[in-house]
Amino acid sequence: xxxxxxxxxxxxxxxxxxxxxxxxxxxxxxxxxxxxxxxxxxxxxxxxxxxxxxxxxxxxxxxxxxxxxxxxxxxxxxxxxxxxxxxxxxxxxxxxxxxxxxxxxxxxxxxxxxxxxxxxxxxxxxxxxxxxxxxxxxxxxxxxxxxxxxxxxxxxxxxxxxxxxxxxxxxxxxxxxxxxxxxxxxxxxxxxxxxxxxxxxxxxxxxxxxxxxxxxxxxxxxxxxxxxxxxxxxxxxxxxxxxxxxxxxxxxxxxxxxxxxxxxxxxxxxxxxxxxxxxxxxxxxxxxxxxxxxxxxxxxxxxxxxxxxxxxxxxxxxxxxxxxxxxxxxxxxxxxxxxxxxxxxxxxxxxxxxxxxxxxxxxxxxxxxxxxxxxxxxxxxxxxxxxxxxxxxxxxxxxxxxxxxxxxxxxxxxxxxxxxxxxxxxxxxxxxxxxxxxxxxxxxxxxxxxxxxxxxxxxxxxxxxxxxxxxxxxxxxxxxxxxxxxxxxxxxxxxxxxxxxxxxxxxxxxxxxxxxxxxxxxxxxxxxxxxxxxxxxxxxxxxxxxxxxxxxxxxxxxxxxxxxxxxxxxxxxxxxxxxxxxxxxxxxxxxxxxxxxxxxxxxxxxxxxxxxxxxxxxxxxxxxxxxxxxxxxxxxxxxxxxxxxxxxxxxxxxxxxxxxxxxxxxxxxxxxxxxxxxxxxxxxxxxxxxxxxxxxxxxxxxxxxxxxxxxxxxxxxxxxxxxxxxxxxxx
Length: 731
Known about the structure:
It is a single chain. Helix content is 27%, strand content 25%. The strands form 9 sheets. It has a 7-stranded mixed sheet with strand order 11-12-9-19-16-17-18. Strands 14-24-21-20-15 form a 5-stranded mixed sheet. GO terms for molecular function: oxidoreductase activity. This is Oxidoreductase. Residues 217-295 form the Aldehyde oxidase/xanthine dehydrogenase a/b hammerhead domain.
């Protein structure tokens, strides 16, 4: 097997002739120890990497297994990442497999997140692009070196494709599996030759996803599917208000429920352990718990928002500033003032949170879950269990969605699983299950946010000043990531998308107030861009109409220094048959464009708004994500972003009444129905720039494109989300 073992360095000394450029590889003329003659035909081995190739294994049966360091929550990164390595290797796609990497930040850190292993911010492909290309190329060159040694031919005459290593002049060839074991003993090339884009056979092509069959026939294993020997199920009764604690509880009735095995108190509440999930849930229903609300959040959503409005009257901390917008607005020909509000939002992934933990025979712990922040999760559970992190082994499974929820800085649900296991005496494996109601009312929401904007134009319609204040609770303040992310009291994930606007606004200030409520908040698919993009794009649209200029042309005039944004905007408008004029009574087109996570997305929404109802007929999207590793996965992610975000645009919100969440399931927090899903067209900009991400960037532009289309259809501005359907009644 060509595996992650570090090979023994060969006693190789480069000759004075140095490096010679060969056809397809670097050829090195070496003075060798006779025992190391095999290396004579090989690539540049003079600078052997200390770190072995930990991303690919080749079996004797020719299977190529790509080790995936990121969690796949449905976004398809297993296919994308495997594509990168397989293309450089020259693998036959039919023989490519994947497996999730163990927790090991020394091997599998996310280079765009810092020294941790984790998935998020649409970074999986972006941070792995060169890493996996080099891994595949190194394995290819090792196979070539082995073949050249066996056949006593120059390595420059060797080619690799479809799991075969060939020497055309002699007609000889060998399968990967025939060469892998011997090739594995060679040193790993430190700087293997990366293929020119003209040589790619998989990258940029629509090839089948590797997980489709298993997810279709039910053989894919999610963490909710895990069943360990003698496993028991645990559910936890948690406080109905955030910040409340257990005052006392009576478990007598719960213990009488058939199937209930034990009841234990943990920091987050009271856990009921049972033989199955139903018995655990019935046991929890029979519990009597008195809660101490002395430190709990007891306000309602309206009260919190009213406080936000008061705070927004002051300028706030300066996140971005150029020129003097206050002075500029005094001389403006026209000033538009607007308020935007955004509610708390639940992640509402299809698979609720869950994890299984058991004691291993060596005294360590094995944990099974959809791990998104492996380094944080491993360390947090180890601290709860009182062991070092290496004693907690993480076994990653497929995850049925996340949208940010599985990546908490506190590793909350995994810490809870460890606490329940410890409190139970560690007698049997425990599967902690959050029900749908637990998940939706359990906290960690997209923050509720308020924006106030004053923007002005001159007599020719040009923007002269923009004064912007927002209030929202920081995700990072108080978390382990505060030192890295928060500067001068400003959380970059709160202000992203507005503080760094690409629009050429001559006098601009963006101020921020950090909310102080006791509701746990977290990144939600596209994080700060979920609200900043909406505010910027709706306001730009308002200014365009105030200036009596076509909204697409107006944006382009302000994006002269942003060619990639301009490019997707032009492409989306062209493909949509753009017109700012209503197509028919109650029907119109709206546009929005935004950069997030290094990717550029524009959308044109075709909307019908009549009789207090909004129907989105069609979404035309243009995306620029650099090299499109797999166009089908890119299209699927944009289509999925539309489906995911549409319900938040039209209706969804999490509301508090006296501190208690009111929405507990899909009846009150309704996802997008298939019957309301619009037709989605995705157009991808060709590129050879290093790829960025697409898991999140499709979300920010949907809301403003729809809101702007509603204006085009009705003449009524709907600024806040979700869109108030009564606002278009009678239009």
